[in-house]
Design brief:
binds zinc ion; about 350 residues; 16 strands; 6 helices; three-stranded mixed sheet
Length: about 350
């Protein structure tokens, strides 16, 4: 942290941090954690051990609400969401009343991707070869959906755990592809574009190099990827996975990079599980170039993990009060979060 003045200690003094992707500030209050850690560590005994659930609409061979039956799939399985948030055949339409009430229709395609036929697995417990099948499927889906002229953006995301509103433990993600670029990737795109124009280099390539040399926020990594608690993280154990090579989207990853992405995902999610001795809930997803036909040299492929837990498997962070009205706030510093994640195993479950 050589760039800070001697008087300013990021581990002690309240400060705000700028997120150059979102152009937002985040308030960090490390002094509030100087009391000893009092959060208890709880073991959640009720881990699902059932590899097949006859009532699950994602398990192989089962019927879904539409009456369609799932095939007896062996690794991954993709189907159109039976209750999609977006429909491909939505008619175009706009309203604009005095530039105050503005709306336009949005169309899209929503799919579900099952990671495994085994109902009880999580990414952290899957074999590397099986995670590799998931990575390949993400790349195929991105390419296929993105090649449709009406689709401008493909958002792949996973909600894991009941705390994140995922009612079904079957390992899966969703893929929502839309006719417009959603807010957050759009903001990130503008930031990356401006950085590239001004500096003639990539924002996240430059950030990768800082994290690689600093090391204090690295949680997991390999030859091709780093998982870090970003300097500007909002959630207590938020992380970002960054590719070392500048690629704009997942389908550009070479074979060994796809394997390495699976490896870093497994290491990170294993550390997460070990942190509070429980299957760790999170929302995760990839950010990559829009599929609007432009080449997007500014875009650097990455993933975000947003876990809600704060102190234990049962104590979560809430975004309320000042955070809803002012700006996000955290107590534990990103560096301390990274220390805690590095202190547990990335290769075996410790519970
Ligand atoms: Zn299932
Ligand atoms: Zn880059
Ligand atoms: Zn992003």
């Amino acid at each position: 942290m050589s760039s800070f003045s001697n008087a300013f200690d990021v581990s002690k003094h309240p400060h705000r941090r700028y997120n150059p992707l979102l152009r937002e500030w985040i308030l960090v209050s490390p002094h509030r954690t100087q009391r000893p850690w009092q959060g208890q560590v709880e073991s959640i005994a009720a881990k699902s051990e059932v590899s097949y659930d006859p009532a699950c609409y994602m398990c192989p061979g089962n019927k879904r609400s539409t009456g369609a039956a799932n095939p007896n799939y062996k690794n991954v399985f993709v189907f159109d969401n039976d209750f999609p948030a977006l429909m491909p055949d939505t008619p175009g339409g706009k309203i604009n009343r005095d530039n105050l009430l503005i709306a336009e229709t949005e169309s899209g395609i929503c799919r579900v991707l099952c990671f495994s036929p085994k109902h009880h697995l999580t990414l952290s417990m899957m074999e590397p070869a099986d995670i590799r099948s998931v990575v390949d499927c993400w790349a195929e889906q991105f390419r296929e959906l993105g090649s449709k002229p009406e689709i401008q953006y493909v958002q792949i995301f996973e909600n894991r755990g009941a705390l994140m509103g995922a009612s079904n433990p079957h390992p899966h993600c969703q893929i929502w592809s839309t006719a417009s670029v959603p807010n957050i990737p759009k903001t990130e795109q503008e930031s990356q574009k401006e950085y590239l124009t001004g500096k003639k280099s990539c924002l996240l390539c430059d950030y990768f190099k800082i994290e690689e040399s600093d090391r204090s926020r690295i949680v997991a990594g390999n030859e091709h990827f780093l998982a870090v608690v970003p300097f500007w993280a909002v959630w207590p154990f938020e992380t970002m996975i960054l590719s070392k090579r500048h690629v704009a989207a997942i389908d550009e990853l070479a074979s060994e990079e796809r394997e390495a992405l699976g490896d870093v995902l497994k290491k990170l999610t294993t550390r997460y599980d070990n942190l509070f001795h429980a299957s760790f809930p999170y929302s995760m997803g990839f950010h990559q170039r829009p599929t609007d036909g432009d080449s997007h040299p500014e875009w650097h492929f990455h993933a975000h993990f947003f876990p809600p837990l704060l102190r234990s498997a049962t104590v979560r962070k809430f975004m309320v009060g000042f955070e809803l009205l002012g700006m996000p706030q955290r107590d534990i510093t990103p560096e301390t979060s990274a220390d805690r994640l590095r202190a547990v195993s990335d290769s075996r479950h410790e519970f």
